Amino acid sequence: MAKSLVIVESPTKARTLARFLSDDYVVESSIGHIRDLPESATEIPEAVKGQPWARLGIDVEHDFKPLYVIPEDKRKQVTKLKALLKNADTVYLATDEDREGESISWHLREVLDPKVPVKRMVFHEITREAIHEALKAPRDIDERLVTAQETRRVLDRLYGYEVSPVLWRKIAPKLSAGRVQSVAVRLIVNRERERMAFRAARFWDLTGTFSAAAADFQAELISVDGKRLVSGKDFDPGTGKPLAEKGHLAHLDEAAVRALQGQLGAARWTVAKVERRPFTQTPPAPFTTSTLQQEANRKFSWGTRDTMRTAQALYERGYITYMRTDATTLSEQALGAARRQIVQRYGQDYLPPEPRLYRSTVKNAQEAHEAIRPAGDDFRLPEDLRGELDERELRLYDMIWKRTMASQMPNARGQRILVQVEGRAGGTAALFQASGKTIEFPGFLRAYVEGSDDPDAELEDQERLLPPLAEGQTLSCRALAPLEHTTQPPARFSEAALIKELEKEGIGRPSTYASIIDTIIRREYVSKKGSALVPSFTAFAVVKLLEQYFGHLVDVAFTARMEDALDSISRGEGESLPYLKEFYFGSGALPGLHKLIQAEIDPREACTLRLGEDFQKREITVRIGQYGPYLERNSERASIPANLTPDELTGERAEGLLLRGNTPDVLGTDPAGGKTVYLKAGRFGPYVQLGEAPEPAPKEKGRKKKDDAPRPKMKSLLPGQTPETLTLADALRLLSLPRTVGTDPATGEPILADLGRFGPYLRMGKESRSLPSADAIFTLTEAEALALLATPKSYRRGQTAPLRELGKHPDGGATILLMKGRFGPYVTDGETNASLPRGADPTALTLEQAVTLLRERAAAAPRKPGRGRAKPAKKTAAKKTPPKKAAAATAVPKKPGKAATKKSPKAAKSPTVRKRGERVAG
To answer: Does pLDDT of 472 surpass 90?
Structure first.
């Protein structure tokens, strides 16, 4: 009997959807995109390998036709879907309702080429009601969204594949450029430039503790003799000096403040002013993708990737609505559910007369989804889900539930109170000020308090009480305390602040922010220091080159206009082809990308960042080398410590590094071998070295590295050790590592304690464990070491601990673990992963069953492109192709040339290059 085939993106979504459909439906997953532009030369079909555009995967000379291929790891799934299609009477494409989901559906239709009716099924939550409503009202694939997604994909491919090689050649390998990624890096670098140019200023004031009716409160000095005291905004951030127009303000140094403190010791204090102002505070709108990412970063310190992964799991299992949305609206169903729960939970006083309606303020808002909220028409309470969700999922669901509730609750109401206290002594008058805040009705604050990028702003939201005061009231002063202030440089971007800035400027899409931040961290353009995003010196060099030679491509306004153009295409108001031609070939005043990449760029200049001059007017520069950034002054060089941020590399610090890098400290002589012990500064911080480094041998043809003299022994300092306090004894202790703790009684292998890049650790053969402290390297006993090695490995933050340890693999002795993965439980032996069969109970899994699963998975594992055994050569005709031309046929030439062999008619008309309206089979 024929059944309807429903295709979604992920196995988790498929399992959830199947619970709400009858046996008349078969639900299967495409596991994401089944087709895309080629990612490597091995994926390029033989029919087009000789074409000059094959590397790009886009025929730029013929209307930017994309070359779509089915990756090797998706072919098995495509075959499975085609087999299911044979017994289907209808195909429902139920991928996500956004550009990416629309594109996946379009590719499924093109590749599977169904002969039965194809219907597009869309829903924004996976509940029984939503699924059945979607079945009743299917639609066609929206070609406008498909075109917009394809244009974006082509645009990003052209940008990345054309600009990235310029960075490889001129700066360093493995770098990358991206349409939004590069702009994000530029924003971070520009903020660091502001910090580097910043000059701190200092100023003083007084804090007074006053008493009224046995209640104390504090106030700060705001003016002296009618002159307002300076604040941080009154100083030039570039010079640290007061702004010229602020010269009439009172700028007190320490001596002046202490003199004023003495004068006011005998002052008479009165309340000069009491001002009460009512305020109302409105609740924040329900979550969009962007605000969810920002809030999870502020409240939980989660990265955007972690937030989206957790939200996706909640959506696919039916707990929340679709998590990629720019909309802040709630459906009538959601409004009713929220209002019912508000009354049940908080009482009738917390229910407004009418539902609150929100309008999106996001620039270029797209795809009118509903806001992110709990799924269904009766929201499940967070406390009821403790047994169903893991800790991360529950925390995110709880935050979404509270935000949804708060968005439909009344305003918070209260009063802000401002009090000024005047003190007079002789001819001096000083004015102090205190502020308070009282909450008269908490409103939505009963459910939710929004986070902030500014800790001071969060403090302001807390209630601050002042004693009852009246104008003219006499006060007593209990204490006056001088207080020094230092102006602060602009704060670095956190992930939340960067997302907020990108969204404000209309750059990129919230659904792409996670991959953008993930990429710039993975490429080492940016590192995280706490929650702050810190640019590397490589990022400075990349941004400098892009600004100089690809200026408008990293311009914020230009990138935002690109988003406008892509949005107009999705609405059917703009055309894809003219825009792509303008971007690539240029038009008007702006040159196209094709011309920009041909610019002559001096590699040495591209890799050089000017830091300044020393006292002898010698230029100090930062150079980006093969092994990282380093300082250069004439012929002198010195490594830059990995933990040194760009804004901390001042001229004085650079001179110190150059001095130490060229003249290492001599700590003494090793009594055992008579070699000199040095203290040096390296890329990863200070280290000690035993003996002299050998002179590099002259380069000779055929000489291998193993012929070089052995390098001297080196060891980094222990955590807490400083170069200033390091002694010869400390250095010799470090150089004695690794320390032999004992031997394994079962195998006889030595157990070694050592200091590695990630801290102190214990090693025995292939097994290793982190040590609790640096002292343990020298104090750990053999018994303690064996006990530590017998414990399961600990897992770093972001990794998932195993659900259960099943035992040793009989084929190699590796430990087999039962893990929780994104798509369900699986077993692993460290090399092979095998999913559990659908419906299998993980708690009942035995070691024998796990071994069987791993063996079957290893036997069926597909060969990775470019790895494993080569495929057997096909039999050819008697007339052999010359070796030189055969090689050329498999390469991707840089310039057009004649084909090595005459293509067959079938190859000449390759179906892999698509025109709109043509069908394409993988």
So the answer is: yes
